[in-house]
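Hi support team,

I submitted a single chain yesterday and got back a structure, but I'm not sure I'm reading the token output correctly. Could someone confirm the output below corresponds to the sequence I sent? I've pasted both exactly as they appear in my results page.

Thanks,
R.
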Amino acid sequence: MTDNQTVQACIDAWTQSIESISELLAALPTDSWNRATECPGWSVRDVVSHVIAVESELLGDPRPIHSLPRDLRHVTTEFARYVELPVDKRRCHTPIELTSELDYIVIRRSRALRDSRYEPGDLVRTPAGPLARDLPYWALLRERVLDVWVHEQDLRRAIGVPGNLASPAALITRDLLLEGLPKAVARLAGAPAGTVVSFDVTGEVEFLRTVRVDADGRGTLDERVSLAPGVQFTMDWETYARLACGRGRPGPVKAEGDQELAARVLANFALTP
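Hi R., thanks for writing in. Yes, this is the structure output for that exact sequence:
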């Protein structure tokens, strides 16, 4: 796939996922907006507000002027404060106001993406406050696909409406999460040189991947089957995605082999901030 094709694939996947969020919200009863999600401290309305805020910032809209309360226990870092501010600002908004704002943001962002003059390799600043960095345009779009799809799934689990687990956005998310798997195993979990850790993922999105740690302690990822891995993980796709995105410890996760290493890998599996 060329870089231009990657850009278009990301735009199409983002569009499908964020429009799915709009469709979910259109039929959502008012009392469901306050349901808790797996994002610490965030309700359904808060997740929607976050999606709006990030897309708004990408459009160049000014961040709201607002003072955060001091008693938000889930806000423990500067990045968390940055993300929380536009969310807290919208906590007084009604569901109708939020759905209207989301629909308008989708229209504006879709137009901006369609009319963009960025080349795939042009560097663009990410909307992440203290964690902001410059990424190629195609990579920024891929990260937006991941963020929107992950939050779509947060909303679906909170309101009990599963779906889109094998959507185009899900496949892009899978590829992006897999890129971080060697880091999780080799560096974060501290797997020793020579270690082999396999992941057999089933369900809506199936794949088999193996991380191999070389003599210098670096991890590499491949699709080769290992007959005797140090650890063999088996789980379904939704569980894999939830673990990789820091959504608690869902199950079931089957781990065969070195149980101490398996526990370290699971403890360091989350790759999103």
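A quick pointer for reading it: Residues 3-26 form the longest helix (24 residues). Let us know if anything else looks off.

Best,
Support desk
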